[in-house]
Amino acid sequence: MADYNMQTFKKTFLALLTGVIIITIFTKCEEEKEIPAPQIFSNMPEEGYNINIDDTLTLTPQITYDYNTEYEWIENGVIIATTKEFEFIPSDLSTKNLTFKVLSPRGNDSYSFIINTLKIINFEKLELKKDTFWNASNGEKGFYSNDIFFTSKFDSINYWTGFVYSNKSTKTKDTRYLSCTASGAEKSNNYLVLSDNDTTAHKIIFPVKNHYILKNIQVINSFYTNNKINDVVNYITTFTLSFKGFKDGILTVDKIVNLAANRNNYGNSWKTIELESLGEINELEINLKITPDSLQIPKIICLDNLSIKQITSQLSFQYE
Questions:
Q1: Hey, is 45 helix, strand or coil?
Q2: Under CATH, what is the fold of the domain 122-311?
Q3: Domain 39-118 homologous superfamily, CATH
Q4: 53-65 residue pLDDT tens
Q5: What is the DSSP annotation of 144-182?
Q6: Phi, psi at residue 168, to the nearest 5°?
Q7: What is the Cβ-side half-sphere exposure of residue 173, based on CA atoms within 13 angstroms?
Q8: What residues pair up with 281 in beta bridges, in sequence order?
Q9: Which residues lie across from 220 on neighbouring strands?
């Protein structure tokens, strides 16, 4: 009996001793394991962030192994902040390059944030009741948004020439004031609706004392026109938008954009159209072309977020 107890004691003791040794070795390895240097990640778009001059942008870098670290935000070689997050407040129309650095005893990392400050005309401050539109029915020749004039001419409830604005969101087959997404770009409320009757120039007129370089504009087919296209889709040969830039009355560039991605997509999703190639302008003319003319498809298209990149002499914008 004594021998049995002694053997049991030895086995138990050896098991405990082995466990202590394993735990000691494991703990030692963990103590000796080094934490890697920090790394910065961001989901910034390829061209950088586009921000409206009226807005602010909070930059929040993602950092791995963010332990015992310090931060620096640098602009033009000068440290402007030492926090992890940074709130960028635009002051002018320009492109800024901000360098973010993370510093630690184990190593450093840096990342460049590109911020494009634009003047984005999004029409959200134009007053409308819910699910309605404005169509110059009182004889107006157009409307202003941020000191920029959009020409318009009313003929009847379903017929007008030029630009009107809408926040229609109810899909009814006969409405001509509705976008394919039943909203503005990026799910906003207000958007433009352009009706082109081929006989009148549809103009966006900027204050003449300035010249403008535009960045882009977003476009989408109207719900009404898209339905008409679907009825005769196999017969359509052309579905394009023309953007004509004018500088002091002289044509700069006539940019033609094909809106037909394929037979199943005639501009029925919001698309961003680049406009920098127009150069300096103070007038923009937009026309929609659908051929053959014999199809008699109403030429109605929706637009939103006209972005201005540069103004030669800074203008103090007035809101609606």
A1: coil
A2: Jelly Rolls (2.60.120)
A3: Immunoglobulins (2.60.40.10)
A4: 999 999 999 999 9
A5: EETTEEEEEEEEETTEEEEEEEE---S--TT-SS-BTTS
A6: -55, 135
A7: 4
A8: 212
A9: 302
Mean pLDDT of 193-202: 85
Whole-model pTM: value is 0.81
Name the burial class of residue 166, with classes exposed (0-12), middle (13-18) and buried (19+) by CB atoms within 10 angstroms of its CB: buried
Asked if residue 66 lies in contact with residue 27, where contact means CB atoms within 8 angstroms, the answer is no
Helix or strand run (H / E) with residue 230: helix 223-231
Which is more confident, 194 or 235? 194
Give the integer Cα–Cα distance in Å for 135 and 156.
Answer: 9
Parse the chain into domains and list their residue ranges. Answer: 39-118, 122-311
Per the CB < 8 A criterion, the answer to whether 91 and 64 are in contact is no
- How big is the chain, counted in residues? 320
d(CA 61, CA 80): 16
Task: List Cβ neighbours of 121 (8 Å cut-off, separation of 6 or more).
Answer: 145, 146, 148, 305, 306, 307, 308
The residue whose two tokens read 């005769």 is 232
Structure tokens at 101: 């650095």
CA dist 254 → 241, 267, 270 (Å): 10, 20, 22
